[in-house]
């Protein structure tokens, strides 16, 4: 009789409430954009060869693969005076801010270890901390929003991600061109415009996370129970080992989304790691090993602007993407977006004028806007509510694994097959993005709400 009790509808939230619960994503992506746009540049400054960059970037997906399922598992089971997801937002933000401050100053700690080792360590700490803060944000949408608002909720996150990424990506250029900070430095040292940007990123990250923590109320367990039908009790492995059980029982939709994610994130990893050396070599004609010239600095700063452009496009696109999904379907909207991203990546090879790269970023922005929202909207309809956090964390496996594969083999491919010409890694990324678009259309078993 108890199991037949009517399930209450979750209250719809106002746009302001959805904004407040997602505001922290602005700061997270501000820091993430600084990492994406400048980590390769910083590591090259500390002595990394271009073919070794992907190995250093392995720190990011490896930590994400370990951290996100664990954080998802514990956040599902957490409830205290600070809430369910909010404690993880705050802890992750504090740790990320510390890493943002330390990473560009790795050279100052050279008396302990080589700067390249310290820089790679800070990259690992930064990404692990970002994952601690980021994963519960995805689960919070499933916790708080009714099904009819979830596409909009994930799109609001994407909008704020894009807005934060624009700011983070453009800040080094703004510091050097408008605020007088030096964009060049002696060999082995990070320019002031990059250092100051990382400091600003730490402050903004902490502020926006605190905004979400202080303005968002989470439903306590007894209230959450009113909004979900009683799920049958099953004998489950207790503790963290239950993550393995949940992994083995993942829904069909999640497995099929895994292939889409593999193609998409393999491409994104190549783009983040190799865009700066690819554009420096292919368009600015910077010689291999040159990391202290004005041309290399100009290429690095312009990549920051370009990354801001694609994130800006994704932010705008996120606002119209739910309407496209309603008019067609989530699958069709995502397939179209990935196809546009593949075309944008491939076009970089044919461009000689740096200004024209902005057009390539439009297609990449459409793909990024969809990657950050549509897979989660599709997935959230196919997983049990009581395991929203752990399955969102497990889903991160399909984001980290392609990056690990790319990290292990990407640099070797650039060295052995592309003879150090990073532009061909970008071409391969475009091909993989198109394969992702094709694989979306074969997803089955989702509600695919219109």
What are the key terms here?
Growth Hormone, Chain: A; membrane; MFS_dom; 450 residues; transmembrane helix; MFS_trans_sf; 2 domains; mainly alpha; transmembrane; 71% helix; 0% strand
Q: What layout of secondary structure does this protein have?
A:
Layout: H1 15-22, H2 24-45, H3 53-57, H4 59-77, H5 86-102, H6 115-144, H7 147-177, H8 192-215, H9 221-226, H10 242-248, H11 252-282, H12 294-327, H13 330-347, H14 357-371, H15 374-380, H16 388-395, H17 397-416, H18 423-440
Q: How would you explain this protein's 3D organization?
A:
This is Major facilitator transporter. Its main location: membrane. The chain crosses the membrane at residues 18-35, 55-75, 87-106, 112-133, 154-175, 195-214, 257-279, 299-320, 332-351, 357-378, 390-410, 422-443. It is found in: Membrane. The protein folds into two domains: 10-219, Up-down Bundle (Growth Hormone, Chain: A), CATH 1.20.1250; 242-449, Up-down Bundle (Growth Hormone, Chain: A), CATH 1.20.1250. The chain is built from 18 helices and no strands. The chain has helices spanning 15-22, 24-45, 53-57, 59-77, 86-102, 115-144, 147-177, 192-215, 221-226, 242-248, 252-282, 294-327, 330-347, 357-371, 374-380, 388-395, 397-416, 423-440.
């Amino acid at each position: 009789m108890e199991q037949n009790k009517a399930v209450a509808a979750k209250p719809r939230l106002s746009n302001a409430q959805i904004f407040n619960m997602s505001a922290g994503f602005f700061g997270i992506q501000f820091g993430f954009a600084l990492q994406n746009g400048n980590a390769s540049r910083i590591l090259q400054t500390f002595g990394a060869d271009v073919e070794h960059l992907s190995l250093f970037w392995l720190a990011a997906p490896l930590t994400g693969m370990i951290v996100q399922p664990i954080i998802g598992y514990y956040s599902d089971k957490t409830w205290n005076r600070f809430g369910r997801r909010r404690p993880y937002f705050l802890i992750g933000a504090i740790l990320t801010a510390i890493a943002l401050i330390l990473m560009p100053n790795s050279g100052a700690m050279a008396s302990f270890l080589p700067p390249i080792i310290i820089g790679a360590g800070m990259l690992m700490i930064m990404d692990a901390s970002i994952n601690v803060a980021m994963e519960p944000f995805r689960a919070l949408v499933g916790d708080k929003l009714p099904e009819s608002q979830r596409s909009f909720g994930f799109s609001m996150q994407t909008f704020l991600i894009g807005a934060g990424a624009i700011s983070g990506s453009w800040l080094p250029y703004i510091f050097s061109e408008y605020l007088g900070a030096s964009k060049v430095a002696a060999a082995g040292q990070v320019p002031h415009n990059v250092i100051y940007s990382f400091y600003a990123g730490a402050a903004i990250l902490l502020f926006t996370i605190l905004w979400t923590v202080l303005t968002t109320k989470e439903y306590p367990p007894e209230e959450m129970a009113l909004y979900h039908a009683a799920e049958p009790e099953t004998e489950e492995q207790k503790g963290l080992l239950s993550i393995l059980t949940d992994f083995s029982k993942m829904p069909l939709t999640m497995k099929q989304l895994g292939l889409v994610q593999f193609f998409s994130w393999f491409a994104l990893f190549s783009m983040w790691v190799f865009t700066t050396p690819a554009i420096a070599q292919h368009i600015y004609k910077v010689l291999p090993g040159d990391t202290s010239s004005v041309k290399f600095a100009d290429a690095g700063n312009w990549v920051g602007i370009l990354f801001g452009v694609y994130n800006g496009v994704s932010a705008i696109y996120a606002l119209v993407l739910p309407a496209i999904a309603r008019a067609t379907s989530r699958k069709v909207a995502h397939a179209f977006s990935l196809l546009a991203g593949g075309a944008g990546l491939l076009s970089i090879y044919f461009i000689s004028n740096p200004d024209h790269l902005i057009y390539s970023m439009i297609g990449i922005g459409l793909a990024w806007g969809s990657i950050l929202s549509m897979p989660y909207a599709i997935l959230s309809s196919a997983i049990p509510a009581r395991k929203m956090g752990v399955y969102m964390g497990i889903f991160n496996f399909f984001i980290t694994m392609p990056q690990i594969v790319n990290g292990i083999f990407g640099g070797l491919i650039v060295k052995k097959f592309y003879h150090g010409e990073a532009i061909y890694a970008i071409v391969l990324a475009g091909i993989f993005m198109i394969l992702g678009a094709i694989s979306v259309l074969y997803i089955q078993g989702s509600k695919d709400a219109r």
